[in-house]
Amino acid sequence: MDIIFLSEVKIQTRLGVPDWERMVPQTIVLDIEIAMPNSASCATDEIGDTIDYGVVVSRMRETLTENSFKLVEALAEHLCQLIISEFKAPWIKIKVAKPGILPGVKSLGVVIERGSKST
Asked: What is the domain extent for residue 62?
């Protein structure tokens, strides 16, 4: 299986349980692994034969500007389902980190996987 990865993607969004925390966008950090639906791009060298990671990042920024979430878990699930449905990824692993939100804690967040890795 071939995997595209995006490391330390910084995106502004509204996220948090208390209402005041969702009033102003804050930066989250994403680490993402996306299984490619096929390996054709390795032979063809054509962007149309792979998942265009620039489009993926643009789409994530767009959806996180339009939506707000209380929980990092819900945000992570939203992104997973978006990438699976819109980009036909058979498997995705995403880490969502919310940096500096608690005193003495560098970041907090979740890691979730969806789909099947057996492609």
From this structure: 3-115
